[in-house]
């Protein structure tokens, strides 16, 4: 049976990139407005899942040739290292700090080390969700 | 974090890079890279000798969990320095030796050096930590890395057996020790050893004093292979010989000695401490030396010899603790015992390290360690023979080697023990020197067996697998250095006494000893000690020559009652019992698991609610119920009912989705955008996941029609629902505390610089939770991956054996 999914595929290609862009925005917005690493990561995975549904496993793998297990491992490593990093400044494990810097275009911007930690969370969520979905999807 | 923290952690950091060094520099033996580190560390620690001679100590703190009083405080005094030098010095020699011992073609060098470095770092952490919890963490890391090293040749069943045995026994002791540490914390309110020592009056007066003492000694005794926990050490000899030389003679097993020495300022002076440490030490000393004589494996002899020598040091520490009881004596004679303990500790590391290396050479060059096959190697391996001869003579306590001096001091200490006029020592005390003397005779006998059965006698090449020849020079360097130290320390003991022994003893007995007091003489006249040594040599030679005749007495010892039997039986019983217990509830049916989990939850929470009488229903705080909320609630109820009664799976999945999305809408209504967002995406992804697996699911049908089972299901589901509702209502109705949200509202911006409270809580205030949740997620993902991939591989008939 030939499946007619032209509309779904066309819409998905555009939509998934919109979702990913939005998820990145949501991720960075996290410290001040709704969002953050967890939800950003979930949203990115949702975009990838959408691609998986519209296309097949193989196509997505060629577009994103990423081993998602590694992604989650790297995420966890980032989380731990951010925690350890505090110890170099003689602060307890996982102490965060923040400051304000002025940049040419952005103006005064808040910079927080917790963002690095949040990147770790983001990667963990994307990695874990995609690992689970890919392995289950592949098991035929 | 200061330099010394980095120094302690540096072996662990290097361990991360070892696999890469191994991978990218294959033509170079990985050991050469590793060798650099212990040499540098050894030089670094030598720099502290001068200040430690002046009685100065070095302290540096790094905060870890300050709110619980757990900080990585490095405390470097004479005792810690002595051990640090042993760990890095012997460590460097062992790494050098291992480069020639382990071939880079055949062995998995990357894992070997990772484990070895892990061990080195852990050991440095143990001896330099001031905080008991940090000490404990490093202590268990030594057990763990030793487990990995013993099972290095994990294809062999004996290696696995030995590794498991050492792990079970030492970790059991470690846990007991942790309990002892906690008791010390309860008594003093601090984990810092220095502060506990400063508050020693509180500790001795407390009722928990004796339990803490016993628990901590359990840790020390299991680690240092004291009777009856010594049974793990002979089996640990399955590890590669460099490991045996390093862990099981020079360093790790001495962690127990270290602990007793470190805890002496707290516990010494108590009769229980004196009796337990000295008596267990003496029993171990005697039993180890007695058992060593019957061994036929060279490493077996050395293993029991190590056990007995550790007992010797332990018993000396026990007698030395009597010094605290006699604090009024001007010239406190009991400090000699502690001095002897420290001196013998150094000597033992040198001669036992070299003997292990020589035995490794013999094993390497002849293919066997069985003394019944060996013999007459003197002419073929002259250098090894010389090394073994000196090492064994030092071990037997013969002049002019360092073992002689510490053995004389050991006899002095034992003779002093008879003069203690308390604790029934006037009658029982005489047993101390008698046991010590008997044990020394057996020590003499096995030392002679070790060297002369191997290197003299009849050469039997037909019993050897390979043609023996002298070891390569690289393998001989390390034992030559150690044996030179044996000779140097023998002739010039006062090189050590002010620099290492004195400061270490003054850490063990801080108030009773001055560094200037110490002087070790080679010749001190025709003393009783000297006559005891002459007796040892005379009787020992006689026993050695007639060992064939009297050796039969070893057959009297019934194998059935041996401690090993007891251990093995215990393991089998434990395995059977836990298997039976596990099988009783792990039925393999999901419904059974759910019944157990939910039933337990209902019973526990229900009983608690009734017992504590916490059910309250209070609507004072409740807000008005709006129009949308009512609609949503009705939708949710309908959707839930649809899930239950639906006849097709697709309907069930979609209805479940409806429940989830309605929940998200509730969050929107209650103005929790973060939660709503998360709920929406989670719901979407889980529905997608359902759709993915949908195709593979079995046909949807109502499988169980038995009324009894359906009734159980019904009761449990209703009960779970009820309990959850009751808890929800009670939690909402009773506000025992002020809500914590106002605190977060106040500090979110000032403390963390963020405005989104949920996010700030997740990454800043409760970052630890998030970190571990992430870990759980990753583990779960890996678990799913492994399960599905392995099942696929199995179906294809692919991966066999290894994966299962």
UniProtKB/TrEMBL annotation, chain A:
It is found in: Cell membrane. One of its GO terms (cellular component) is plasma membrane. It is a multi-pass membrane protein. Pfam families: MnhB. The chain crosses the membrane at residues 7-28, 34-54, 66-89, 109-133. Residues 7-131 form the Na+/H+ antiporter MnhB subunit-related protein domain. InterPro entries: CPA3_antiporter_subunitB, MnhB. Keywords: Cell membrane, Membrane, Transmembrane, Transmembrane helix. Belongs to the CPA3 antiporters (TC 2.A.63) subunit B family. This is Na(+)/H(+) antiporter subunit B. The lineage of its organism: Bacteria, Bacillati, Bacillota, Bacilli, Bacillales.
TrEMBL record, chain B:
Signal peptide: none annotated. Keywords: Antiport, Cell membrane, Hydrogen ion transport, Ion transport, Membrane, Sodium, Sodium transport, Transmembrane, Transmembrane helix, Transport. The chain crosses the membrane at residues 6-25, 32-52, 72-100, 112-128, 134-154, 166-187, 202-222, 243-261, 273-293, 300-326, 332-362, 374-398, 430-452, 473-492, 530-551, 593-610, 625-645, 652-670, 676-697, 709-731, 770-788. GO terms for cellular component: plasma membrane. Residues 634-699 form the MrpA C-terminal/MbhD domain. Residues 65-112 form the NADH-Ubiquinone oxidoreductase (complex I) chain 5 N-terminal domain. GO terms for molecular function: antiporter activity. The keyword Cell membrane applies. It is found in: Cell membrane; Membrane. Residues 129-423 form the NADH:quinone oxidoreductase/Mrp antiporter transmembrane domain. GO terms for biological process: proton transmembrane transport; sodium ion transport. Residues 710-789 form the MrpA C-terminal/MbhE domain. The keyword Iron-sulfur does not apply. It is a multi-pass membrane protein. Belongs to the CPA3 antiporters (TC 2.A.63) subunit A family. This is Na+/H+ antiporter subunit A.
């Amino acid at each position: 049976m030939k499946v007619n999914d032209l509309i779904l595929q066309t819409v998905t290609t555009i939509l998934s990139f919109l979702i990913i862009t939005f998820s990145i925005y949501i991720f960075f917005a996290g410290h001040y407005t709704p969002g953050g690493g967890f939800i950003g990561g979930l949203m990115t995975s949702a975009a990838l899942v959408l691609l998986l549904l519209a296309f097949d496993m193989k196509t997505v793998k060629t577009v994103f040739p990423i081993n998602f297990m590694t992604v989650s491992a790297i995420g966890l490593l980032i989380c731990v290292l951010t925690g350890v990093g505090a110890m170099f400044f003689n602060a307890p494990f996982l102490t965060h700090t923040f400051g304000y810097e002025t940049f040419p275009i952005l103006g005064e911007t808040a910079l927080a080390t917790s963002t690095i930690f949040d990147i770790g969370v983001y990667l963990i969520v994307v990695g874990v969700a995609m690992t689970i979905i890919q392995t289950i999807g592949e098991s035929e | 974090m200061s330099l010394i923290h980095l120094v302690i952690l540096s072996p662990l950091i290097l361990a991360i890079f070892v696999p890469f060094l191994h991978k990218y520099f294959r033509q170079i033996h990985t050991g050469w890279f590793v060798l650099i580190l212990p040499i540098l560390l050894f030089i670094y620690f030598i720099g502290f000798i001068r200040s430690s001679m002046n009685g100065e100590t070095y302290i540096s703190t790094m905060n870890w969990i300050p709110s619980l009083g757990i900080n990585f405080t490095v405390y470097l005094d004479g005792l810690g320095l002595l051990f640090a030098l042993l760990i890095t010095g012997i460590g460097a020699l062992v790494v050098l030796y291992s480069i020639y011992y382990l071939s880079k073609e055949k062995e998995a060098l990357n894992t070997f050096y990772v484990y070895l470095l892990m061990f080195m770092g852990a050991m440095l952490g143990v001896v330099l930590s001031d905080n008991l919890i940090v000490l404990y963490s490093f202590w268990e890391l030594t057990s763990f890395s030793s487990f990995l090293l013993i099972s290095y040749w994990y294809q062999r069943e004996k290696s696995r057996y030995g590794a498991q045995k050492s792990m079970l026994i030492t970790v059991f002791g470690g846990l007991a020790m942790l309990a002892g540490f906690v008791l010390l914390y309860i008594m003093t309110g601090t984990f810092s050893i220095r502060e506990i020592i400063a508050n020693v009056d509180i500790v001795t007066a407390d009722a928990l004093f004796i339990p803490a003492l016993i628990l901590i000694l359990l840790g020390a005794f299991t680690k240092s292979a004291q009777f009856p926990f010594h049974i793990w050490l002979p089996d640990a000899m399955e590890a590669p010989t460099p490991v045996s030389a390093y862990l099981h003679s020079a360093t790790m097993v001495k962690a127990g000695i270290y602990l007793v020495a470190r805890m002496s300022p707290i516990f010494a002076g108590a009769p229980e401490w004196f009796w337990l440490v000295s008596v267990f030490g003496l029993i171990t000393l005697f039993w180890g030396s007695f058992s060593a004589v019957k061994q036929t494996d060279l490493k077996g002899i050395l293993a029991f010899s190590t056990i007995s020598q550790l007992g010797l040091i332990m018993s000396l520490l026990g007698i030395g603790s009597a010094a605290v009881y006699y604090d009024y004596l001007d010239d406190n004679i009991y400090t000699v015992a502690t001095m002897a303990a420290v001196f013998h500790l150094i000597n033992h590391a040198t001669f036992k390290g070299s003997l292990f290396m020589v035995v490794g050479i013999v094993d390497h060059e002849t293919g066997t360690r069985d003394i019944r096959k060996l013999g007459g190697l003197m002419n073929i391996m002259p250098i090894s023979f010389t090394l073994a001869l000196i090492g064994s003579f030092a071990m037997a306590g013969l002049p002019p080697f360092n073992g002689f001096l510490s053995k004389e001091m050991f006899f002095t200490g034992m003779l002093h023990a008879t003069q203690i006029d308390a604790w029934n020592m006037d009658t029982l005390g005489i047993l101390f020197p008698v046991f010590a003397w008997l044990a020394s005779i057996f020590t003499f006998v096995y030392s002679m067996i070790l060297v002369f059965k191997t290197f003299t006698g009849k050469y039997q090449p037909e019993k050897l697998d390979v043609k023996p020849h002298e070891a390569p020079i690289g393998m001989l360097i390390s034992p030559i250095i150690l044996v030179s130290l044996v000779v140097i320390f023998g002739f010039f003991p006062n090189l050590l006494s002010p620099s290492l022994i004195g400061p270490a003893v003054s850490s063990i007995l801080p108030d009773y000893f001055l560094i200037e007091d110490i002087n070790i003489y080679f010749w001190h006249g025709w003393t009783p000690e000297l006559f005891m040594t002459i007796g040892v040599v005379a009787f020992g030679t006689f026993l050695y020559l007639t060992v064939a005749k009297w050796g039969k007495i070893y057959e009297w010892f019934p194998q059935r009652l041996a401690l090993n039997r007891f251990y093995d039986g215990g393991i089998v019983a434990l395995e059977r019992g836990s298997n039976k217990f596990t099988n009783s509830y792990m039925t393999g049916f999901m419904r059974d698991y759910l019944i157990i989990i939910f039933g337990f939850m209902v019973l526990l929470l229900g009983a608690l609610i009734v017992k504590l009488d916490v059910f309250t229903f209070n609507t004072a705080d409740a807000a008005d119920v709006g129009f949308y909320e009512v609609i949503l609630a009705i939708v949710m109820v309908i959707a839930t009912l649809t899930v239950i009664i639906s006849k097709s799976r697709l309907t069930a999945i979609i209805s479940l989705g409806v429940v989830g999305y309605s929940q998200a809408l509730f969050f929107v209504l209650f103005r929790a955008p973060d939660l709503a967002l998360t709920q929406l995406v989670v719901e979407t992804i889980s529905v997608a996941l359902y759709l993915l697996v949908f195709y593979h699911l079995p046909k949807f049908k109502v499988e169980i029609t038995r009324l009894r089972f359906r009734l159980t299901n019904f009761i449990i589901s209703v009960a779970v629902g009820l309990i959850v509702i009751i808890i929800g209502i009670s939690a909402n109705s009773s506000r025992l505390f002020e809500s914590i949200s106002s605190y977060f509202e106040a500090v979110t911006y000032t403390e963390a610089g963020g405005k989104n409270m949920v996010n700030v809580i997740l990454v800043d205030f409760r970052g630890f939770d998030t970190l571990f949740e992430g870990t759980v997620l990753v583990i779960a993902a890996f678990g799913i991956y492994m399960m599905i991939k392995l099942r696929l591989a199995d179906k294809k008939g692919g991966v066999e054996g290894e994966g299962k």
